[in-house]
Write a structure and sequence with these properties.
118 residues; 7-stranded mixed beta sheet; 4-stranded antiparallel beta sheet; 11 strands; globular
Length: 118
């Protein structure tokens, strides 16, 4: 089993920043790579950012390019999402997810709420 736990969400004003963390535990060797998704209020879950398989490059949704940065520690047990210049439309529950097999996100965290509002 793999467990993923997000933290770092909260309320922030437009233009502000937050850093989300995701800690993986359990059978972490079962994870090929990881990514971030979000579910805005009343909408479907959507892709935010991820590492490509083997982590050779990063992928971002067009809506967050240039504002969000995905990173991780060397042991692959913790992943981060640095979110800068936040906008009200970034308001959502953010989830981290783990791939197994590559391209298929099998493992999910419980989510952390991010609210961008003045």
């Amino acid at each position: 089993q793999v467990q993923l736990e997000e933290s770092g969400g909260g309320l922030v004003q437009p233009g502000g920043s937050l850093r989300l963390s995701c800690v993986a535990s359990g059978r972490t060797d079962d994870i090929y790579d990881m990514g971030w998704f979000r579910r805005p209020p009343g909408k479907e879950r959507e892709f935010v950012a991820a590492f490509s398989w083997q982590g050779t490059r990063q992928n971002y949704a067009d809506s967050v390019k240039g504002r969000f940065t995905i990173s991780r520690d060397g042991a692959k047990n913790t992943m981060y999402l640095q979110m800068d210049n936040l906008k009200p439309e970034d308001t959502a529950v953010y989830y981290c997810a783990g791939e197994n097999p590559p391209g298929a996100y099998t493992y999910w965290g419980q989510g952390t709420q991010v609210t961008v509002s003045s």
